[in-house]
Structure formats: structure tokens, C-alpha cells
Amino acid sequence: MDVSYDGTDFSGWARQPGRRTVQGVLEEALQKQPPGAAVPKSVVVAGRTDAGVHATGQVVHVDVVPLSAPSGRIPVSPEGIPDLTRMTGRWNRLLPGDVRVLSARVAPDGFDARFSAIRRHYRYRVSDAPWGVDPLRRHDTLAWNRPLSTDAMNAAAAELLGLHDFAAYCKQRDTGTTIRELQHLEWTRVDEHLLEVRVSADAFCHSMVRSLVGVLLLVGDGRRTDSWPAKVLESGIRDSAVAPAHGLTLLGVDYPPDSELAARAEQTRNVRTPMS
User: What is the pLDDT of residues 60-99, one digit of tens each?
Assistant: First the structure.
């Protein structure tokens, strides 16, 4: 399933008791309208997003108990497969307006939304206008009250690319590796006062993108030199410069060819425990 959501009013992706989460409302819709005889209570997501973070290209998979006989509650194709286009419409009628299932399809053998992924893509938006943020962009754009230099931020970003231990840019946890391959990190001024940074990596540890953005913004406004982010990386000590969540959006997730999905999932499981 390809899923989009506005994270403003959610306590993040992951289901939490007593809190409104994206996973919670999606699983509720699937339980009310399962695409088969039954679905388990839990779905698997490509990347768990924090409270306030948005997504236009989140990927989810769910295991389904197949129908043993035709059911009037579930539309099926002539081949007996659930009509997932019609099911998507039903789920979206059950879901709140800040979550949408964009499409759904039967996953190939070996597919795992999280472990089969080879790359995630994020965008972070910032306004350096002296008056703040356009009111229509206030939920997905950070207001920064100082002029920003894309040249300075890109010079610093170039030193962070590649395979590194990003412990200095991750919220520490007791388990899991902080070694990641940062493949793309580039700032662009898309309008007079609007900037975007596009970030891609094989995976991200907790708060990694927001930490990268927070450090680079201090370079962009001149409070730090462009060599400082690389020094933070080398130190292994997390800096307190973490950008707010609402400027961040998960844009998409890349997967290998179908024939390589199972091998990729096995490889990833061997080197990572549940982090991101």
C-alpha cells in the first residue's frame, strides 16, 4: 500500500496506547474492511515517522488470510483476487481526511516494506522570510528568522556523504547500528524565501534527518563554519541542534527488482534491529 498523511495531528506513525497514530487509524480501517478473510492487527511500514512528520510516499505491507470462498463484502476480480482499486476507495471512506491510501496491490513474493527497501527519500522545507512562513505552508515548513546560504550548507553537506557512523546525528538507543550510507544531501532555493533539502540514504536512524538539517541550518545562517558538521560527525557526540518535526516529509522508498526482494530483506535483517 502507498500511503500519504499529514502528520500534524498524529503522535507519529507507531501505534501507542491512548494516542492518535497513523498506524492506529490505518489498522482500524483494515479491520473494518479487510482485503481478505482476515488481516493481523499489525501492519509493517517502510519507515516509522515521528510525531508531526508527514509522508507523501510511505509504503506499508500487510499479510492477509485469503478468501476460501467468494464474499459479498469484498469485491473480487474475475480471477478471484480482491479488487484493490475498489478496496482503496472503501478504506479512504473509513479513514480521516489527514490519511489516504493512494494505491494498493498484491505484493511480490519475498516483499517486506521495511527490510526489502534499499533507499528512503526525505524532504525538509525552510522559509527564511523575515515575516516567517506563508500561512498555507505553516504545517510543513519551518520558519527561520535569519537569511540562509545554500552554498554554505551544500559545502558542509558534501563532507557528510558516504558510509559513516552517524551516532552524532542519531537519537541514541540501546540496540541497533548507527552506521548508514548517506547517498544524497542537497539544498535548493525553490522560491525567494523558500528552501528545500532533499536527503536520501539506505536507511535512517532515529531523528537523523532532523539532526542533519538542524546542524546545517546553523552553517547556512553563518553561526557555524562549513567544516563544523564533519567535526560533529567525527566526534560521535550528538549535538543539540535538531530541527522541528513539522518541516519533514517522507517522499518515497526504493526497492530492488522483484527477484532480489527476499535476499535484500534477509541481508537487512542480519545487520539491523528495529530502529528505522
Answer: 999 987 766 555 667 776 666 778 999 999 999 999 999 9
For residue 96, what is its C-alpha cell? 480521516
**Residues annotated in a binding site for substrate:** 122
Distance CA 98, CA 34 (A): 21
Question: Which of 201, 116, 186 has its CA nearest to residue 154?
Answer: 186
Q: In a 3-state reduction of DSSP, which class is residue 200?
A: strand
CA distances from 89 to 1, 35, 46 (A): 13, 12, 22
Residue list for the binding site: 122
Residue 239 annotated among the catalytic residues of the structure: no
Provide the H-helix boundaries in the chain. Answer: 22-32, 84-94, 150-158, 208-220, 228-235, 261-271
pLDDT in tens, 171-199: 877 667 899 999 999 999 999 999 999 99
What predicted TM-score, i.e. pTM, was given to this entire model? Answer: 0.92
Determine the pLDDT at residue 83: 86
Contacts 24+ apart (CB under 8 A), 106-111: 106/81, 107/61, 108/258, 108/261, 109/258, 109/261, 109/262, 110/258, 110/261, 110/262, 110/263, 110/265, 111/61, 111/255, 111/258, 111/261, 111/265
**Could you tell me if 59 and 2 are in contact, meaning their C-beta atoms sit under 8 angstroms apart?**
yes
Catalytic residue of the set 2, 6, 9, 50: 50
CB 160 within 8 A of CB 200: no
- Which grid cell sits at 136? 498555507
